[in-house]
Write a structure and sequence with these properties.
The structure is a single chain. This protein has about 300 residues and is mainly α. The chain has one domain: Up-down Bundle (Rhopdopsin 7-helix transmembrane proteins), CATH 1.20.1070. The protein has nine helices and three strands, in the order βααβαααβαααα. A three-stranded mixed sheet has the order 2-1-3. Helix 1 packs parallel to helix 8, helix 5 packs antiparallel against helix 6 and helix 6 packs antiparallel against helix 7. The chain starts with 8 loop residues before the first strand and ends with a helix. This is G-protein coupled receptors family 1 profile domain-containing protein. It comes from Chlorocebus sabaeus (Green monkey).
Length: about 300
């Protein structure tokens, strides 16, 4: 530790770099937050109130919408507070809690998408056994497993990160910057542990999704009827679109080359990623799914009728 002095408060520097855009950023983020909440709550309400949507796929879609809503609630209110506050600080416990919650919900989202991919595979591979294989109890078990694995990995990452000592340079450049970069005892062992845990979240869920889709493509290409092939691919299109955009955007944010002069670009990209991905779910499923469109219109009509 040498002459380092341990700190317990971080300074959130990110939005201070956009002093001329504080008001505009506040309006944009607030509007985005309300839109995300409204869109995802509408999806959950439509699935709950429409009996024809009480199927395994829509059960997981409802769970994904709820998890995406929680993800934004963890991040965006804090962003709004920082835009209005003169003192842009966050305590060590608050930072750890936010990291645990955000990583937990984000990991959960990915494992739910993996479960949805398996549901699609089961529906195409064994249509006659689909309902016996995907009972409500089994779906609930898969949903609980997604939550447990997601938050367990998040807990391991958070404990590993905050087992480090943070000294002197305690300024967080933006909320997506690695907190580990502020540690004064960050060794290769810690780096490897965090890398392995992060890989379990990102690559683990992605591999599960790709395995399901590879088997789906293999089965569909062997179907003798072109009409059946088109119907099968159409059934998977919404989910495949969400997965492609979600992981494609994640790769752009996390894997593209960084340089020391790209702070503003990294900050805006990270904020955009946080705002756009929770909107993917309701937009794609709302625009590309006729059943969901009908259910949303009925739900909207019932709400208007109440008032």
């Amino acid at each position: 530790m040498g002459n380092h002095t341990a700190v317990s408060i971080f300074i959130l520097w990110g939005f201070s770099s956009f002093s001329d855009l504080q008001s505009l950023l506040f309006v944009v983020i607030l509007f985005s937050h309300m839109t995300i909440l409204t869109a995802n709550v509408s999806i959950m309400g439509a699935i709950k109130l429409s009996h024809n949507l009480h199927t395994p796929m829509y059960f997981f879609l409802c769970g994904l919408s709820f998890s995406e809503t929680c993800t934004t609630v963890v991040v965006m209110p804090r962003m709004l507070v920082d835009l209005l506050s003169e003192s842009k600080t966050i305590s060590l416990p608050e930072c750890a809690t936010q990291m645990f919650s955000f990583l937990g919900f984000a990991s959960n989202n990915r494992f739910i998408m993996a479960a949805m991919s398996y549901v699609r595979y089961t529906a195409i591979h064994s249509p006659l056994q689909y309902h016996p294989l995907m009972t409500r109890k089994i779906c609930l078990q898969k949903m609980m497993a997604s939550w447990m694995v997601g938050f367990l990995l998040s807990l391991c990452i958070t404990i590993t990160v905050f087992n480090l000592s943070f000294c002197d340079l305690n300024t967080i450049r933006h909320y997506f910057s690695p907190v580990v970069s502020l540690a004064c005892n960050y060794t290769s062992d810690y780096e490897m542990a965090i890398f392995v845990l992060s890989a379990c979240v990102l690559m683990g869920s992605f591999i599960l999704i790709m395995i399901s889709f590879v088997f789906i493509v293999f089965i569909v290409t062997k179907m003798p009827s072109a009409k059946r092939r088109f119907k099968a691919f159409s059934a998977c299109s919404s989910h495949l679109t969400v997965v492609s955009i979600h992981y494609g955007f994640a790769c752009f944010v996390y894997l593209r080359p960084k340089n020391s002069n790209s702070f503003h670009e990294d900050m805006l990209t990270a904020v955009t990623y946080t705002i756009l991905t929770p909107l993917l779910n309701p937009i794609v499923y709302g625009l590309r799914n006729k059943e969901m469109q009908i259910a949303l219109r009925k739900t909207q009509g019932n709400v208007i009728g109440v008032f």
